[in-house]
Amino acid sequence: MAKIGIDIRMLGKRHGGIGRYIFELVSNLLLLDKQNEYFLFYNYKTADESDLAVFSNYKNANLIKTGIGHYSLAEQLRLPKVLNKYDLDLMHFPNFNVPIFYKKPFAITVHDLVHHKLGGGNPIHFLAYKKVVGSAIRKAKKIIAVSRAAGEEIIKYFSSAGSKIEVIYEGSSLKADLSENQVTEVKRNFFLDKPYFLFVGVLERKKNLVNLSRGFDRFLSLSNFKMDLVIAGKADSHYPEIRHHAMDIKHKNNLVFTGFVEDLDLTALYQGAFAYVSASMHEGYGLPGVEAMGFKLPLVVSDTPVFNEIYDDAAIYFDPEDVEDIAKKLNFIAKDRLYYERLQAASLKRSRLFDWKTTAKQTLGLYIECLNDKMLKS
Fold first, then answer.
1. Which pTM was predicted?
2. pLDDT grade, residue 107 (50/70/90)?
3. d(CA 374, CA 42)
4. What is the pLDDT at residue 312?
5. How many C-beta atoms surround the C-beta of residue 122 within 10 A?
6. Which domains does the chain have, with CATH numbers?
7. Residue 47: which of 13, 92, 1 has the closest Cα?
8. Rounded to whole angstroms, what are the CA distances from 248 to 16, 105, 209, 210, 242?
9. By the 8 A CB rule, do 218 and 184 touch?
10. Residue 317, beta-bridge partner list
């Protein structure tokens, strides 16, 4: 029996896609693997007790309480001491923020390297980020990339990492299982009385929401359609101006900002939507679009390598920097019923390729490979 640690300090839906990744991966690993012992390091200041309760049901899961926040100085200085108490055979960090001074074997998941591409506001923070990421990728036994595009991006910045990268897709958690009355109630709560395009995600710079709202505004100006654009997700404190700029359009009354939504409401929003839309400039995977496919939603998204890889023929693609092209593609999907229905069928079919059980099975295989390598070298 090996002792495997997992950093779950970013557990929970409020941490966006990474939080959901941690919950689903750990839940499915514990269902799958009864042979190894797991040590789950959580931050009691931010953890959702209902998530922790799921893990506590498993005999081979040990919940380790810490008060160490992610991206903090304490993460770098104190967390290694906490981890070293448990004599772990392998540690999995589900994001790039690995303590530089941690010396034992570990694997990491890299969701994207967006900050390498876009830079950072604070030069000191950006230098620290680059040092932490570089150290993590250099020292990791294995690197999980959430898409081929994400793996290629890692190699672009860290050419020597290629042999350590394994692509493991994520799954989808939400199911279209609400009644019509439940969906209607949620729509009523958000004052949604028209067909709507849906975007799901944090309001941050890379999501390109200003161009999306301008393209949507142009679509309404050029067509006779009466539709809304629902933006479901919390604001990013680093980019408070995004909502203000997105609202600077003629049809601002057709924009609906929900803020953070719980899974029940999010399920209803997916289930009631006309189509899913994203003008994101940079993603490692695109989990909300995968979720949308499970609801048989056509996707209208940026023409980027990762979206083409993950969504394939379930989407119609536009240039995210071209407002006119965004408007054109929204108009096309709204008016062409046959094409819309074709995308619906392709969307549902493709959604079946993404499953958290498969994610866990492949991740466990990666753990075993790391552990076997450790045994050979000991």
1. 0.92
2. very high
3. 26
4. 97
5. 10
6. 3-171+355-377 (3.40.50.2000), 180-351 (3.40.50.2000)
7. 13
8. 26, 50, 12, 9, 10
9. no
10. 301
| Residue 256: Cβ-neighbour burial (10 angstroms; 0-12, 13-18, 19+) | middle
Computed from CA positions of residues 267, 282, 73, 125, in that sequence, does the dihedral angle turn out positive or negative?
A: negative
Q: State yes or no: pLDDT of 21 exceeds 70.
A: yes
Give pLDDT tens digits for 321-369: 999 999 999 999 999 999 999 999 999 999 999 999 999 999 999 999 9
How many other β-carbons are positioned within 10 Å of the β-carbon of residue 180? 9
HEC-encoded secondary structure of 345-366: HHHHHHHCCCCHHHHHHHHHHH
Which tens digit of pLDDT belongs to each residue from 170-193? Answer: 999 899 899 999 999 999 999 999
Short-list 284, 281, 349, CA closest to 315: 349
Q: Residue 98 to residues 17, 44, 69, 142, 365: CA-CA distances in angstroms?
A: 18, 19, 12, 13, 21
